Amino acid sequence: MGEKIKALKAAFPHTIPVLTGYLFLGFAFGILLSSKGYSAGWAIVMSTVIYAGAMQFVAIGLLTTVFQPLSALLITLVVNARHLFYGISMLRQFSGTGRKKPYLIFGLTDETFSILCSAEPPQDVDRGWFMFFISLLNQAYWVIGSALGGILGSMVAFNTKGIDFVMTALFVVIFIEQWKSQKYHAPAIIGIAASALCLLLFGAGNFIIPAMIMIVVLLTLLRTRLERRAAE
């Protein structure tokens, strides 16, 4: 138990920025879901079981329209496809974590991924428990925010116009923070250029998957050169 408490104390400071963001975003999700006639209980269940911020906002639209399984599957794939690449890059870090590994995979969000890539536990703290508590704390913030938003949304009427833009704003902030934290920006520039090109070629509704494929191919082909330049 002492080992777990020590890991929890070491993990918490790294999650404070996510705490502020997730409480607000979860709150927005809870309010938006409540405005569609769903109780706070549904917000808690979705945030616990689905736990995918962008997809949860999209799911609200799916719940309020005619159910189309194939369309829902494709939308989910497009929205969450980036997690495939997150997961591949974390295979080495997650190795040797034992029974914690399934939850570490499940709890790998954009913000958690960013923390796990940059945060290092103290020498006397178990790395597996350190990563586990970072993931668990982040999800707890999201669930709490969703519950508060759902409860308040059921009690007070809100104008929810534009509230679904919060996820876009979050991704912009994450990109800016990643840009500022890195001195070598070639991979980010490749991602921007590939996305812009695919947007022009395929249009706003169909560019995400081609852009991700192009980014993966380019980064794979240029991997050795990029790593050498980054090291320099």
Brief overview:
This protein has 232 residues and is mostly helical. It has helices at 2-35, 40-49, 53-63, 69-80, 82-89, 91-94, 101-106, 110-118, 127-155, 166-181, 186-202, 208-221, 223-231. The longest helix has 34 residues, at 2-35.
Secondary structure topology:
Layout: H1 2-35, H2 40-49, H3 53-63, H4 69-80, H5 82-89, H6 91-94, H7 101-106, H8 110-118, H9 127-155, H10 166-181, H11 186-202, H12 208-221, H13 223-231
Helix pairs in contact: 1-2, 1-3, 1-9, 2-9, 3-4, 8-9, 11-12
Structural features, described:
Helices cover 77% and strands 0% of the residues. The chain has 13 helices and no strands. The chain starts with a helix and ends with a helix. The model has no long low-confidence stretch (mean pLDDT 84).
